[in-house]
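Notebook entry, structure prediction.
Reason for the run: the old model in the group folder had no record of what sequence produced it. Starting over properly, with the input documented here first.
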Amino acid sequence: MAQLALNKPHWVKRWAIRLSKVLFFILLFVAVGRTLGNPYNWVNHSLADKLATFIYGYGHVGGEEIDDTYFYIDVLAVITITIVIYLITMKLIRKIRSK
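New structure, fully documented this time:
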């Protein structure tokens, strides 16, 4: 009877693994975002200005639109870097566990 209590259903293990992967991705996302820092320091201003003009249209770009564009660039960069690091990490873990 005690042995039966120790065996968890398969779905519990699967959901625990999925939850740990999601938490790892969120932790990685926050770490990458904090590491990159302020986008005003690493994004070229002319690139942000051209992108804001493309998004909002000529003559409709003000300070708030530029700030929004810096935010969009920052989020896209953080998501891209996080996905790359996450995929590499998961491949490495899978490779190590298969040996």
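Summary: The two ends are 34 Å apart (CA to CA).
The old model has been moved to the deprecated folder.
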